[in-house]
Amino acid sequence: MTDLHAADDHATPLTPAEREDLIPTHITLRSELNELEQQNIATGNRWAFGRRHVVTRESFLKSLHRRMFERVWRWAGKYRNRTQSRCRSSFNRGLASPGH
Fold first, then answer.
1. Entry pTM
2. I need a surface site. Which of 4, 46, 86, 91 has the fewest CB within 10 A?
3. 42 exposed, middle or buried (CB, 10 Å; 0-12, 13-18, 19+)?
């Protein structure tokens, strides 16, 4: 049995739905997206671990998510009502506390 999630998909073109919310228009392959996301995540990590934060606050989590994806996705740091392809980020409306 083959593990589909372990397959090398670096050359896989992004779907139109995935490209819809991308900020950089030159990204067409998953490998390019992965590289750009990794750079942006490193920026978010430096911010998060470079100072003291109350990590259980919603404002911290939204800010961290924004900093991790703001150069890649338009929805960075915002609640979404739809699931992103391949569950790149589970920061969606379903995880918000009631009333938010």
1. 0.63
2. 4
3. exposed
How many domains, in total, are found in the chain? 1
Domain for residue 16, yes or no? no
- For residue 81, give its domain range: 23-95
CA dihedral 72, 47, 96, 73 (to 10 degrees): 0
Q: What pLDDT was estimated at residue 78?
A: 87
Query: 43: which 2 tokens?
Result: 């920026």
Q: What's the pLDDT tens digit per position in 19-78?
A: 888 999 998 888 999 999 999 999 999 988 888 888 788 888 899 999 999 999 998 988
Alpha helices in the chain (DSSP H): 16-20, 30-49, 58-69
- Does 86 score more than 60 pLDDT? no
Looking at the domain assignment, is residue 11 inside a domain?
Answer: no
29 with 14: CB under 8 angstroms?
Answer: yes
Question: Is residue 58 within 8 Å of residue 97, measured between CB atoms?
Answer: yes
Does residue 9 lie in a domain region? no
